[in-house]
Amino acid sequence: MKLICKQDSLSSAVTNVQRAVSAKTTLPALEGILLRAENGKIKLCGYDLEIGITTAIEANISEEGAIVVNAKLFGDIVRRLPNEEINIETDDKYITYISSGEVKYQIVGMYPGEFPDLPSFDEIDDITIQSALLKNMIKQTIFATSDDITKMIYTGALFEFENNVFNIVAIDGIKMAIRKETVDYDKSSRFIVPKKALNEILKLGGDDEDENIRIITGQRHAIFKIKNYSIFTRLIEGTFLDYKRTIPQNITTEACVVARDFISSVERMSLLTSEKIQSPIRLHFTEEEINLSCSTTIGKATDIIKTPVKGAELEIGFSNKHLLEALRNTDSDIIKIELSNSSTAMKISPTEGDSYLFLVVPMLLQRG
Length: 368
Description:
By secondary structure, this protein is α+β, with helices and mostly antiparallel strands. 17% of the residues lie in helices and 43% in strands.
């Protein structure tokens, strides 16, 4: 393999592809990036058997070929080379020669046949979504995905398409986030995307309204095509919770609150809590206000949000961490709070429309 390419293009490509490389593995090739030079481009691939990222950049290729190089070492070298052309050459012993200007490196590579193939699958659906829209939907739901691998089904988000409506749903047992949009896709499709793939979509997806992301799904895998990148991911298998049944219906208490005011008040109460000092934030809904309070071993705090409250007086408690995660992901100036009782999840939604719905399960309050 022998080629010349631009340093900035290769550095950007390596940085992005490198995120799919295994940090610790018994298979040395998985700690590397597969480089393949052909048809006027150098193709890069990182793959940890769960997620793979591929891309290609323009190159002046005088000899086609392929090699696997250690991702961390190769990435560190490329990023520190002068911002000019890079020469890359390999020999039949898989030694890789890298040079740019007066800088020269010689590193040991690996036989490309040791690098596992990315999954191939029969296509079930091919869906195109505006990049900025999909990123926004993921941003507003990823906080509710679970990190508990014993409940693997909830370590990702449900993508649900039906009758031109697209829902992303995430649940971790304490919080639930639903993000809803109307899209130009009238088929029915459901699949669960792992959190790691969701994070890569956020990093690689653009905010240009004219830019799209193409989603190709199979029975167990999916590909997200973003600009000149492809994200290959294994889908999470299993039966996702019938989330619509968990949404409280018998609302007894309702209030509309300025989101920023609510967040600021909860943050003030949170100053008395920490990882070691846990205590619920108490919300007491009365006719004309919401009283907030927190009491821990290091002190007490109270605050009041003046706002009309419809329905019954009610006191309820929440983890400050989980409550803030939900509140900070609202994108409305004014939000609607709905409650059934002190032991049922609180609903958080916009005052107009139904683009999102967050549920937060309360903590048990000690009386007296």
